[in-house]
Design a protein that fits this description.
Layout lengths: L5 H15 L23 E4 L17 E3 L4 E17 L6 E5 L2 E5 L6 E16 L5 E9 L20 E5 L12 H8 L4 E8 L6 H11 L7 E6 L12 H11 L2 H15 L3 E4 L4 H4 L1 H16 L7 H7 L6 E5 L5 E3 L14 H10 L8 H6 L14 E7 L17 H56 L4 H38 L1
Parallel strand pairs: 8-9, 8-11, 9-10, 11-12
Antiparallel strand pairs: 1-3, 2-7, 3-6, 3-7, 4-5, 4-6, 12-14, 13-14
Helix pairs in contact: 1-3, 2-9, 3-9, 4-7, 5-7, 5-8
Length: about 500
């Protein structure tokens, strides 16, 4: 199986996983979007340099085109282009593209495999090469709709990681750390950051295999690839002591630079859990040994700002709660990677890891291929990917001994807790505000009632103070009294006259 088939094999692997999956939320296309047609085979491609463009559409990462700075690639298709997927041979940094007379910047994230959704559909796009030049292996274009699942739409590296996996080489994450990424990144959707100590920029295919493998096992946050080239001079032998191999590796890799790199990764990602290699380097690989050797030093330094103060100022300090080492002899836990995963259609974490390793076509000739070729992870005895030990903990020992995140509140869970607490705080504030408003309205109503009562009482007092004889009424009463007095006097006179007359008449008789 030649390494010139990397792209086609990766898509075959991805398609196989998808066909088996009942559901795969981390790969799901946007709901309601139809599948975007691929235009690569029928699009027109021309280079401003006059070079042949065939290598850009042959689906082969082993062939690529080197372009000088300020040159351009023009792509056109009568049906209209909406989605662009570029596989760079080397990461170019910032670059621009132009559609319909408007230029846009891309490349800010530094992805080797870069997806760009264009702001609008266009019949023609110009890719403008930056001043430093660039090398491209493949370009894929698509029309409107959701791109296929094999198109890698990477998210930036984690802000903070639940798990920081320190893999020495591209493919170790699927071999000695088999099961971790499909389960924790794919199935549980955790914040998992992969950091590679070494890089493979001296090869054409391995950086592409690296990304293809991670994408296959469900990783969506872009990995960190260290500045240290892979160097075969660090290799050891089982016949040698660990110390002998370590000292040879330290002549290859600068201990101070590597320790600083480890401290930076810990402070930057503030991992809840760090997972590292076997102290003996599994099969006595010196790079594995030195990776864990410097990790152990970094764990003691990362929480102390006096070490690498510039990094402390940039990221703060961080004391890792839990650190596990592969095959570590104390506080051992045994992981079960043979349980079917819903997110991968019933495949086990180990089976998915084998698919990830299958993307590393350039490594299929090695003894790792035979070593990993088992039905179950539990069937691997030597360098078992299931066996780990809790090397260091600030939160106590494990009880269940089957979960790296035991006793850990993940960052997502912390965010949910904070969100609930914030919602409860806001609800309590709103309740207090409503209660205060109701109380204020009640007090206002009571004040209005008191003021009304006081006003009524004051009015009554004023009425009482101003009440007295009415002059008009008094005059009328005087007239009545006088009239009654006159009438009474007249009546009295009449009576007296009548009495006097009656007396005279008696006297005459």
């Amino acid at each position: 199986m030649g390494k010139d088939k990397t792209g086609r094999i990766f898509r075959l692997v991805a398609a196989t996983v998808m066909a088996l999956a009942f559901s795969l939320p981390v790969w799901a296309a946007p709901e309601g979007n139809s599948q975007a047609p691929e235009l690569t085979g029928s699009m027109s491609v021309s280079l401003s340099t006059g070079q042949a463009a065939g290598a850009l559409t042959d689906d082969n990462v082993s062939t690529y085109v080197n372009l000088p700075g300020n040159s351009s690639i023009t792509i056109s298709h009568v049906d209209g282009i909406r989605n662009l997927y570029i596989l760079w041979n080397k990461i170019p940094g910032s670059w621009t593209y132009t559609i319909n007379g408007v230029s846009y910047e891309a490349g800010a994230d530094g992805f080797l495999h870069e997806y760009v959704q264009l702001p609008e559909t266009t019949a023609e796009i110009s890719i403008d090469i930056p001043e430093g030049g660039a090398a491209l292996t493949d370009i894929h274009c698509f029309g409107e709709g959701a791109v296929p699942e094999w198109v890698q739409i990477w998210e930036p590296s984690c802000d903070r990681a639940d798990i920081l996996l320190l893999s020495t080489h591209a493919d170790d994450e699927h071999l000695f750390f088999a099961g971790i990424l499909p389960y924790y990144a794919g199935e549980r959707g955790g914040e998992v950051q992969v950091v590679y100590m070494t890089n493979h920029w001296d090869t054409v295919s391995r950086p592409h295999e690296q990304l293809n493998g991670l994408w296959t096992v469900g990783v969506r946050n872009y990995p960190i690839v260290g500045p240290f080239p892979d160097d075969a001079a660090s290799l050891g032998s089982k016949r040698e002591s660990v110390e002998t191999v370590l000292q040879r590796a330290l002549r290859v890799y600068d201990e101070e630079a590597l320790t600083e790199f480890q401290v930076e990764m810990i402070r930057r990602f503030q991992p809840q859990v760090v997972i590292g290699h076997d102290e003996a380097g599994e099969y006595r690989h010196g790079a594995h040994i030195v990776n864990t050797y410097t990790l152990k030093k970094a764990l003691e330094m990362s929480g102390d700002g006096t070490y690498y103060p510039d990094l402390a100022e940039k990221y703060g300090t961080w004391d890792v709660p839990k650190t596990y080492l592969h095959l570590y002899g104390e506080n051992q836990i045994v992981m079960d990677w043979d349980i079917p995963l819903e997110s991968f259609g019933g495949l086990t974490a180990f089976e998915v890891s084998k698919l990830g390793y299958g993307c590393h076509l350039s490594q299929q000739w090695t003894w790792f291929t035979r070593w990993v070729d088992r039905d179950k992870a539990a069937h691997i005895d030597t360098y078992s990917p299931c066996h780990y030990g809790l090397y260091r903990s600030t939160i106590g020992e494990d009880i269940g001994k089957k979960d790296f995140l035991e006793n850990i509140i993940t960052y997502r869970e912390q965010a949910e807790i904070l969100a609930r607490e914030e919602a409860e705080r806001i609800a309590a504030q709103e309740a207090e505000l409503i209660a205060a408003e109701a109380s204020a309205k009640t007090e206002e109503a009571e004040k209005v009632a008191r003021d009304g009562a006081e006003q009524s009482e004051l009015q009554e007092r004023e009425n009482a103070d101003t009440s007295g004889p009415d002059p008009a009424g008094s005059a009328f009463n005087m007239h009545v009294f006088a009239a009654v007095a006159v009438i009474g006097a007249i009546c009295l006179c009449v009576l007296l006259l009548l009495w006097h007359r009656k007396r005279r008449e008696r006297s005459r008789r």
